[in-house]
Amino acid sequence: MSETYTILLVEDDPQIRELVAGTLESEGYAVVEAQTAAEGAAQAGACKPDLLILDLGLPDRNGINFIRDYRIWSSVPILVLSARTQEISKITALDAGADDYLTKPFSVAELVERVCALLQRTTEERDQLDPIIRFGDCQIDCARRVVTRAGEPLHLTDIQYRLLILLVSNPGRVLTHSYLFSGVWGDRAENNQYLRVYVGQLRQKIENNPAQPQHILTETGVGYRFQL
């Protein structure tokens, strides 16, 4: 890779910490390790990581509170690793400020894919050179509010466009139902079926196979993730 990214890994399980650190270092990343929330907070201030990987079940502090405090002063993406499989745990972590959630046990291939997606997003946000967003055979001209597919204009309603922009602006990040409702409809009461209808409409317009989407991916019971 052309740039070395620093990843802070806060995990108290030595076997998982060794697995994650070894995997990421083999991919060319610099990994800084911490075993507790207190050590993680100190390392975050010292090494200024490009990405934080966090276990929720830390011995000295609840990981959710760690995320909330971290978000006060840093916008660095957070990938949660947790054995908590309940949907409410995922939603709580994401609403607190985490960007993605990976449930233990996980495959190293999926870990690397999630890390790459989050780091790609931060690089694009940092650069912000081009108001044109491209994915698959689609293109969004954000300045002109024009969406095309294979060079042909797509007609999107205002809500469809706002939903697409919100998803595309957060590639690789899991967006909860409540986050999407707040971003698209404001204070309107949440209705997951209502959101599902609009996501289905977008898939019909931008996906090659709406039944097996490659871009707008469902995180069951939690929300959606956009893959460029």
UniProtKB/TrEMBL annotation:
Highest taxon listed in the record's lineage: Bacteria
Alphabetical GO biological process terms: positive regulation of DNA-templated transcription
One Pfam family from the record: Response_reg
One annotated GO molecular function: cis-regulatory region sequence-specific DNA binding
Residue numbers carrying 4-aspartylphosphate: 55
GO CC annotation, single: cytosol
Keywords: Cytoplasm, DNA-binding, Phosphoprotein, Transcription, Transcription regulation, Two-component regulatory system
DNA-binding region: 130-228
Domain annotation OmpR/PhoB-type: ranges: 130-228
Main subcellular localisation: cytoplasm
Domain Response regulatory: 6-119
Subcellular location: Cytoplasm
Protein name: Two-component system KDP operon response regulator KdpE
Organism in which the protein naturally occurs: Azomonas macrocytogenes
